Amino acid sequence: MKKSIVSLSLAVLAAALAFGQNRDQGRNREVGGRIPSHGPPPFRQQPQARPQEPARAPQQPQGRPQEEQGRQQPGGAPQAPGNRGFADRQGHPDAPHVHNNGQWVGHDSGRDDQHYRVDHPWEHGHFTGGFGRRHVWRLAGGNRDRFWFGGFYFSVAPYDYDYVADWLWDTDQIVIYEDPDHDGWYLAYNVRLGTYAHVTYLGNS
């Protein structure tokens, strides 16, 4: 009888742990593991406020200069000044990423973003290896300054260096998408992490 109770208790505990683990894995599957069916849509600017209705600046709390307060993340937590913050939900990466429902988080700076301005777009030609989920590439080496796969060479935008710090340059799978807003750039999506970065094409061998 005592053995039966112990066995039953262990079975219930194992089931509870498995349920919790599956629930956590489901939460983590909101980002990564799936390949987006398409790239982001072109960013559409918000309509400007009408002249008779000037936009009001948000009021700042007393006692702290605006520079020290930083911006607010979507969840309301302050972030460091100058850091955009992309962790839109608990457990999501603090880097541009794609939800498994196809939403591209962070691709909203529009065509005028100076971080992605290029004096000579497509200087090394256009990437011809194929775009989207039918063209999954395994990284074959390099680093953020110059990486390659299938004889094609790319470089990460300097503004995006922090977003690729955890990429595995000799094993991760990536998918290339066209960037609808920034001439001279593509978007490299990391399948394992669900994050992406702006990359420029350096040519092929």
Description:
- It is a single chain.
- Strands 3-7-8-9-6-5-4 form a seven-stranded antiparallel beta sheet, with no helix packed on it.
- The chain has two helices and nine strands.
- The protein has helices at residues 2-28, 66-69; strands at residues 97-98, 104-105, 136-138, 142-143, 146-149, 152-156, 173-178, 186-190, 195-204.
Give me the strand/helix succession. HHEEEEEEEEE
Cα-based radius of gyration, to the nearest Å = 22 Å
Low-confidence stretches: 16-28, 47-83
Largest sheet geometry = 7 strands, antiparallel
Shape: globular
Number of β-strand runs: 9
- How much helicity do the residues have? 10-25%
The number of helical runs is 2
First-to-last CA distance: 72 Å
Mean pLDDT value: 78
Structural class: alpha+beta
Strand order of the largest sheet: 3-7-8-9-6-5-4
| Beta strand % | 15-25%
Per-chain topology:
Blueprint: H1 2-28, H2 66-69, E1 97-98, E2 104-105, E3 136-138, E4 142-143, E5 146-149, E6 152-156, E7 173-178, E8 186-190, E9 195-204
Antiparallel strand pairs: 1-2, 3-7, 4-5, 5-6, 6-9, 7-8, 8-9
